[in-house]
Amino acid sequence: MRLPVTQRPTPQINVVSMVDVLFAVLTFFIVSSLSLSQTKGLPVNLPTAGSGKVQAQTKIVLSLSDRGDLAVNRQTTSLDNLAVQIQQTILQETKGKQPPSKANPTTIIINADEKIGHGYIIHIMDRLRQVPNIKIAIATKNR
Question: 131: domain range?
Answer without folding.
Answer: 48-142
